Amino acid sequence: MKKYLTLIIIGSALLSGCSNASDGTKQKEVKTETTAPKTLSAEDQKIIDKHNEYVQKYSLEDKEVFQKHMREILPEVDKITDKRKRELLQMNIYMILNDYDKAHALNDKQLAEKPNDTARLTFRCQLLGLQGEAAPTLNKCYDYVAEVLKVELDKPENKKDPNYKQGEFSYLLAKYKGGHPEYKEKMKRFIDSINDEALKNLFKNNLRYRSTKLIKKP
């Protein structure tokens, strides 16, 4: 069940991390791709290393300079044969370039392969927001994320999952972002019931950030 949990929190972090990078913020906020346990081809690893080098070298430069070099390396990234690595770096670069249309197209492709991937469903909602979609469209998007999450949360085998609390909070937050203001109070009560202080603070910070971005139903 882990892949269904903390999706809004993680998805938002990835999205803001890429956007911040394009604005020339701290280098540590920019995603780089590390070597995975799976053995990559020498050519794939060479391209990944070059991408990481570019990120480390240019992420603190002006936005235009950073984007220029990311645009320069994109054709090489497109040649990576490892699908997961290729799509991860492609999405990273699209977000740095503010190319939301290509990011959306890649997200559509990924969801066609895994329709109930809640992390990618949430990312789609965030992209729709960046593309200026109207509130009803965004509400519908987040409501659907909540529906998919609820199905997972209701499965008996998931009740004892160590990440279940994150899943519950993600569900409440998806409903809140879907234009249901009554879920703000439900999230507050849920947070108050948490004994784990680190988890409680994570939820509090996420709620505090989202409180200024509530999408209201017309």
Q: How does this model look, in words?
A:
- Keywords: Signal.
- Residues 1-21 form the signal peptide.
- With 218 residues, the protein is an all-alpha fold.
- Helix content is 67%, strand content 0%.
- It has helices at residues 7-22, 42-58, 63-77, 83-96, 100-113, 118-130, 135-153, 164-177, 183-192, 197-210.
- The two termini are 34 Å apart.
- The model is unreliable at 2-30 and 214-218 (pLDDT under 50).
Number of helices: 10
Shape: globular
Radius of gyration: 18 Å
Mean pLDDT: 82
Number of domains: 1
Order of helices and strands: HHHHHHHHHH
- Show unreliable segments: 2-30, 214-218
- Portion in strands: under 5%
Distance between the termini: 34 Å
Structural class: mainly alpha
Query: Helical residue percent?
Result: 55-70%
Strand segment count: 0
Largest sheet: none
Summarize the structure.
With about 220 residues, the protein is mostly helical. It has one domain. Helix content is about 65%, strand content about 0%.
Q: Which terms summarize this structure?
A:
218 residues, 10 helices, globular, mainly alpha, disordered N terminus
Q: How is this fold's topology laid out?
A:
Layout: H1 7-22, H2 42-58, H3 63-77, H4 83-96, H5 100-113, H6 118-130, H7 135-153, H8 164-177, H9 183-192, H10 197-210
Helix pairs in contact: 1-4, 1-6, 2-3, 3-4, 4-5, 5-6, 6-7, 7-8, 8-9, 8-10, 9-10
Signal peptide: 1-21
Keywords: Signal
